[in-house]
Specification:
Length: 258
């Protein structure tokens, strides 16, 4: 494969970073080469369900919100594609964990008014970096001092939390001229809830982070195989990736594959 080693990134979206952190090769195929697979992954399918359930929950009048209403939404939107998962056990585990944690986290939210933002997509320019940031704000609501962002994810690690905090802080500063009072991330596979309180210096830190992130995304030579290969067997780019991947030596790679 002739891989263009330095590319120009004009827009960084939240899902770009999520894909990159999971596997930079998937990011390369999907977002830089534009080879969007017609086969969804189990994560895309499950995240779609989660978003629809959240939307229906908050659009429902408060007196209609209940565990039955949430379960009906999950049943309506969950796509029964066992083949997308690593195994039947994996399928049932993901469905069970998502159901249980959505019930727990949504039902403890007793707000009456609809959220300030509900699954709304925004884009804003970051002049200092000559890029646009694009984000979908899942749930945002007013608080006493400002607003709180809440994001429901399917799996997340420390690297993801840091990345999301920086992105949300920088994005809100540029788009809304303020930073969120608090950023909550709920991991629907483990039930963990992570909270972050941006401070005054957080914007400068976020800008520095994205300066570095842009450099990394633009230099495809720095792309790494994922820490875990658990997703490789179900990856839609598996054949292409295994054919293209020869570690380290570019000359060997060229010799073998061009
Ligand atoms: S096969 Fe594995 S390493 Fe290759 S793109 Fe897919 S997940 Fe990444």
């Amino acid at each position: 494969m002739k891989k263009k080693t330095v590319v120009s990134i004009k827009t960084i979206a939240d899902y770009h970073l999520e894909d990159y952190m999971r596997c930079s090769y998937q990011f390369y195929y999907r977002h830089l080469l534009g080879q969007e697979s017609s086969y969804p992954s189990w994560r895309h399918m499950a995240q779609y369900t989660v978003n629809q359930v959240i939307r229906e929950f908050y659009q429902c009048p408060v007196e209609g919100r209940s565990s039955v209403q949430i379960l009906e939404s999950i049943h309506r939107y969950w796509v029964k594609r066992v083949d997308l998962f690593q195994s039947r056990v994996h399928y049932l585990t993901v469905l069970g964990e998502i159901t249980s944690h959505l019930l727990h986290h949504l039902l403890k939210d007793k707000r009456i008014e609809p959220p300030l933002f509900l699954l709304e997509k925004f884009r804003t320019e970051i002049k200092e970096l000559e890029i646009d940031l694009s984000m979908t704000l899942q749930v945002a609501d007013w608080s006493g001092e400002g607003f709180i962002l809440k994001k429901y994810v399917l799996d997340a690690d420390a690297e993801f939390y840091v990345s999301y905090h920086h992105m949300a802080t920088l994005f809100c500063n540029k788009a809304f001229q303020t930073v969120p009072e608090r950023i909550d991330i709920v991991n629907l596979l483990t039930g963990e809830e992570h909270q972050y309180y941006p401070s005054e210096k957080s914007v400068a830190e976020a800008l520095a982070y994205f300066h570095l992130a842009k450099d990394i995304l633009e230099n495809t030579d720095s792309y790494m195989r994922p820490k875990s290969f658990s997703d490789c067997s179900m990856c839609p780019f598996k054949k292409k990736c295994h054919r293209d991947w020869v570690p380290q030596d570019r000359e060997i790679r060229n010799y073998l594959y061009e």
